[in-house]
Backbone:
């Protein structure tokens, strides 16, 4: 089961970085990442993990993981996906596990 969680988390890393960077994420992107039946779970997980990734000061975005910034939306997305990919994946895995426990 852990490998399935890891694969799902991997698929959600970019979506999470995009959401955290305040770039619009379309419903289809969640469906593509986790499938139609799991899209709502994917949205909840992405939303919860994103909360811990950035902080905002007016229109400027700062990374909560390493305190770097300020970034534009696009700059924050690139920073998160390049510098913190594995950390975001681990956070997503934990949230997915938590989400599964609430279902079972």
Residues:
């Amino acid at each position: 089961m852990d490998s399935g969680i890891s694969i799902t988390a991997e698929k959600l890393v970019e979506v999470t970085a995009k959401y955290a960077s305040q770039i619009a994420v379309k419903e289809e992107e969640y469906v593509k990442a986790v499938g139609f039946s799991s899209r709502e779970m994917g949205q909840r997980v992405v939303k919860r993990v994103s909360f811990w990734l950035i902080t905002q000061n007016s229109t400027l975005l700062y990374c909560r993981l390493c305190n770097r910034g300020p970034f534009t939306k696009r700059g924050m997305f690139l920073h998160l996906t390049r510098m913190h990919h594995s950390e975001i994946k681990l956070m997503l895995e934990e949230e997915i596990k938590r989400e599964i426990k609430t279902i079972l």
Remarks:
- The longest helix spans residues 2-20.
- The chain has one domain: 2-103.
- The chain is about 65% helix and 10% strand.
